[in-house]
Amino acid sequence: MKLEPKGTLEEALSEMESKNMDYFKYDREILLNCFYKMFERLGFLSKFGIDGNSLTSFLLKICENYNYAPFHNVTHVFNVTHVCYTVINANRKESYLA
Fold first, then answer.
1. 97 Cβ partners below 8 Å, 6+ apart?
2. Structural contact between residues 78 and 35, judged by C-beta atoms closer than 8 angstroms
């Protein structure tokens, strides 16, 4: 039995700041938006001169081409990325971006 995602983008963007984010309640489109916001909130777009449209295209390709395997899927990729995001935020992200 497959559960349908139930979370909204607004909930995800708010919950993204917590290490206890419930990834499974969000669909791929919402996770894609959260991926982008993580890069944006960390200042990566401005710091590294990343074009927003290029980042969006890159993230879309990842989501489109990632398998729907039971574990190694977009939700797992998001989980790993989100853990890195929360660790950086918890440990003074400015020191990592200097």
1. 42, 43, 44, 47
2. yes
Q: Are 7 and 25 in contact (CB under 8 A)?
A: yes
CA dist 27 and 80 (Å) reads 16
The pair of three-digit structure tokens given for residue 18, joined into one six-digit string: 């917590």
Residue type, 24: F
Helix axes 52-65, 28-41, angle to 10 degrees: 140
- Cβ-contact 23, 16 below 8 angstroms: no
Nearest to 82 by CA among 45, 50, 37: 37
- Write the pLDDT tens digit of every residue in 48-84: 999 999 999 999 988 887 767 677 788 888 999 999 9
